Amino acid sequence: MKEKLEQLEKEINETLGNARTPEQLEEARIKYIGRKGVLTEMLKSIREVSSEERPYVGKKINELKRAVEEKIKTEKKIKLELNDEIKVTDKIAVKIDFSLPGSRYEIGSRHPLSQIIDEICNVFLGFGFRIVEGPEIETEYYNFTALNIPEDHPSRETFHTFFLDLPPQQHKKDKKDHKVLLRSQTSTVQIRIMENEKPPLQVIMPGKVYRPDATDASHSFMFHQVEGLMVDRDIKFSDLKGLLDSFCKEMFGRKTKTRFRPHYFPFTEPSAEVDVSCIICNGKGCRVCGKKGWLEILGAGMVNPKVFEAVGYPPEKWTGFAFGMGVERIAMLKWGINDIRIFFENDLRFLKQF
Ligand code: DAH
Fold first, then answer.
1. Is 300 near ligand 1, meaning CB less than 6 Å away?
2. Distance between CA atoms of 4 and 143, rounded to whole angstroms?
3. 277-311: per-residue pLDDT in tens?
4. Do 197 and 294 contact (CB within 8 A), yes or no?
5. CA-CA distance, 321 to 274, in Å (whole number)?
6. Is the pLDDT reported for residue 94 higher than 80?
7. Ligand 1 pocket: which of 148, 224, 267, 321 to mutate (most atoms within 8 A of CB)
8. CA of 95: how far to CAs of 17, 71, 176, in Å?
9. Are 327 and 227 within 8 A, CB to CB?
10. Residue of the nearest CA to atom 12 in ligand 1?
11. Looking at ligand 1, which atom is closest to the CA of residue 227?
């Protein structure tokens, strides 16, 4: 009897192991545990087994019955899940070979520029700034007029290829129609936020900008900036210096030095360009910094009272500073990348390194 049962167990395992279709499973069910199934019949005639063998035989038959039930249940469940999730028909479901290796999904990573933008923003979040974004399609009013670049200013001319064939938009302040273009700077967002909110303000504004530059290793017609703005009472140039110096130390390392060179921007007065000590040679002079020991990374200054007037802040009451930095340039310096074009080529050999 014992041998017979062992033989039967082997047979059941094989039959169930080979059963692929619902029909085969049903066949096996009927054959072994159906009303006239082999195991059912054996249980019925258990009395005929000798009393010594009976406990073992009873136990074994029940085990085998349960194994058959379990197997059928799990197979049905797999099929049900498949039906639920991918709506496969019975025929397709049975064609899936679960023993084949699955298809591998590549794990992506954040683009290096997104990583740098996050890093820059995080430093300023730590200083109490908040992040604001503005539109990439802007009116002349926000891109120029409100930023103290008057209508007849020749620099507007250079952007004529960035104007879009869209209806002009009126601005509530001057009630004039303003043509629409791809913004050339994130400084536009300063105006939008000041028009909508009252001081004090502490915001950073990351985003894409567009320039009529011929593409080469250090120029691109599109790149990213992070703009900053702080408005409050009694803000001084030394506040700006302290903040940007701390930012550069956080971004490039504790030993980094900064220097402010006088410059001109229409929307700030006084204005400066800010350099960091070369992060490659520590200021000694090398190929990257052109033997100067310094690298220019941003523009900054005290908000021009004319800008405050444009947004309706009384200039005698409020003071503030603003700054804008190029993200690609910072990324290139940080990682020693010598061609800006590589950021936009989507070459996985490059992107996978970050
Ligand atoms: N908008 C300037 C540019 O695109 C950068 C800049 C300079 C932004 C000075 C500022 C600033 O907010 O104060 O070149």
1. yes
2. 91
3. 998 899 999 888 889 999 999 999 999 999 999 99
4. no
5. 14
6. no
7. 267
8. 16, 19, 68
9. no
10. 323
11. 12
Structure token digits, residue 341? 């074009």
Strands (E), the chain: 130-131, 137-139, 169-170, 177-178, 180-182, 201-210, 222-232, 258-265, 268-277, 294-303, 319-326
Closest CA to 191 of 149, 150, 143, 230: 143
Q: How far is CA 58 from CA 47, 61, 250, in A?
A: 10, 5, 76
Whether 301 lines ligand 1, by a CB cut-off of 6 Å, is yes
Radius of gyration of the chain (CA): 37
* Joined tokens for residue 89: 């028909």
Residue 297: CB atoms within 10 Å: 21
> Is 313 near ligand 1, meaning CB less than 6 Å away?
no
In order, the DSSP letters of 184-238 are S-THHHHHHHHHH-PSPEEEEEEEEEE--PPPBTTB-SEEEEEEEEEEETT--HH
Mutate to test the pocket of ligand 1, among 148, 155, 185, 304 (most ligand atoms within 8 A of CB): 185
Residue 80: its pLDDT value, please? 62
Q: 160-198, pLDDT tens digit by residue?
A: 999 999 999 999 988 999 999 999 999 999 999 999 999
State the distance from the centre of ligand 1 to the C-alpha of 267, rounded, in angstroms.
8
Distance CA 294, CA 277 (A): 5
Reference 179, options 195, 159, 165; nearest CA is 165
Q: Which atom of ligand 1 is nearest to the CA of 324?
A: 8
> Separation of 37 CA from ligand 1 center, angstroms?
86
